[in-house]
Input
Amino acid sequence: MLNSFRAVITGSSSGIGLGIAEAFAAAGCGLVINGIATPSEVRSLSERLRLKGAEKVVFHPADVAEPEQCVSLIRDAEAELGAIDILVNNAGIQYVAPTEQFPVDRWDAILATNLSAAFHTIRAALPGMQGRSSGRIINIASVHGLVASIHKSAYVAAKHGLVGLTKVVALENALNGITCNAICPGWVLTQLLQKQIDNLAVEGHISSDAAARQMLREKQPSGQFTTVEDVAALALFLCSPAASNITGASFTLDGGWTAQ
Ligand code: NAD
Output
């Protein structure tokens, strides 16, 4: 469906970003992937994506918390792929603590990675997309871009900011053939969430399975995790012709979390 489309996906060495990369590879896209990974992980990831059907796979090691590395990521991707049709801002980190005890360096790192990185990549990618009057930008936000939970001041602030940025970019480019949307998942079982489950298990002296069930019970009425494949399928849809008039929207995939 997206044959010959060229996509950049930040934070695609694991979890949701990797799931999106796999779905785009299966659709025949050329890909620039990114994230924190060892050379042998990069080799096996790239091979896996090529086998899935990616037209081309290039790994870029940008640390997206650094503005100039975001710009290098976009410029190098344009050079490698010829142009960028799809930009997915997915890289993200988490830290959990009460606001008055929240370490300042964790606040800065979360804002840089989960919010400012998207501004820098979008800022760098827009001129190319505007020149071709075509582009799709997808920001992986979170239910925490729409509602709050305790002890997540930086994450909730960054994700609310990302939803706001999504709307502004959508409005500014509504006549340019460029859409910009946010995907807002609830709990997705990835390494980012596993760390929170493990902490809950230690604090509550319960098993990891019991901690996972408790997290679902507290927030996600369906009682089920959203899967990486669910998120990837929605991202793929947002790049399809049927989604050409969907822009500035936030899509929840949260088992009813935000309906409460
Ligand atoms: P993950 O830890 O599996 O993946 C995060 C990715 O970001 C990895 O590839 C990692 O290498 C990369 N990354 C982290 N810091 C980076 C940096 N400075 N520069 C470049 N890459 C960096 O986690 P995930 O759950 O797949 O998270 C992906 C996105 O989905 C995040 O933005 C997260 O906030 C969001 N999200 C996750 C959940 C969930 O329950 N897992 C729910 C809602 C939203």
